[in-house]
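Hey, can you fold this one?
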Amino acid sequence: MDWADTPEQAAFREDVRTFIKERFPESYRPDLESEQSVEPEDIPGYNWPADRRSDDPERREAATEWAAALAERGWVAPHWPKQYGGAGLGVLEQFIFNEEMADARVPMVGGIGVSLVGPTLIAYGTEEQQQEHLPRILSGEIAWAQGFSEPAAGSDLAALQMRATREDDEYVLNGQKIWTSGAQHADWMCAIVRTNPDAETKHRGITFLVFDTDTKGISVRPIVDMTDQKPFNETFFEDVRVPVRQRVGDENRGWYVAMAMLDFERSGIGGAVGYRKALEDLIEYVRGHEASPSCQSGAVRTDWHAATRLEMADRYIETDILKNFALRTASIQARDEIPNYEASVNKLFGSEVHQALARTGTKTLGLYGGIWSRADAPMQAFFQRDYVGSAAHTIFSGSSEIQRNVIATRGLGLPRG
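Sure. Predicted structure:
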């Protein structure tokens, strides 16, 4: 396999770098104290759906300016076809674009509206739905949340119980969703609901709907996580009326729309680059600091240097492997194939690399790794907070147990237990 860019890819990479250098607003700076996203693809210090509604007018305007700059090139949605307002980039061009954005540490915009909802509407939505939603996703006018998981339907998503009863030209929704990331900032939500509880199998009788989060009967309650952030929510539905015209795909066939939506998730190169950047920051910090009695000046335990050097070497190798896993996924997609167990390998390995990196960073700082205050801790307490926050990464978006089952049965051909 040739890892080098073709001349065309190299020219495109340089174009992206120049664009970011010239158009990214100077006032749009990372703020680790603001609300963060839990997605590994996101850049620390940014959360575009929240930033566009920030109480800080400068941050709000910068987020809007950045979205407008990307929209000029179709790069809000680089993977969408041009006729729908995207850039129509090929898979490997998307890989390069995402890699350069992550390397420059600048945020993507649009959230799941761009990455998941838009492609789903392009593939399965009506012309009316496309005309209503796609332009507003591209302009940054609306942000989306995803209502899939329920308290009793996490890894076994097909066991969902939230009911949608048909009454003439409306569905009446009653039930609860949980782990709805960013729902407190979202204008619209997509959700899968049970419209036929008597279906032969639990995968049938499920319908895919989209609706305004201001619809009467919807209440969003943020969940405070271990890092004192509110990245996700529990969302309650009480006699919520959604017009039938807001159904995507056929009634009782929503499971297949939802699974197709998840296929739109990309290679994960943003996470691979982000982890490498965090490791490089740690290495630079260690090289510039010796043990000191002053926490303000920062310190590293010198008696741990030999061990931490070995750990950092391991983390460096692992982030390199993760980048190659991402490139493998992109290469499969470039052949118009859908990654299956390969995506599970990427997710499993990436989650564990994240946790290992957070442990290494926290341990390297010694006792200073226990300081929570960003103002008082070395590196603004990045690694100790990441250590706590990364605990969920082997659970959400498909737990490690589920990923191992997929790899065993679909990748290795082992029998189901």
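Residues 292-297 have pLDDT under 50 and may be disordered. Let me know if you want another pass with a different chain boundary.
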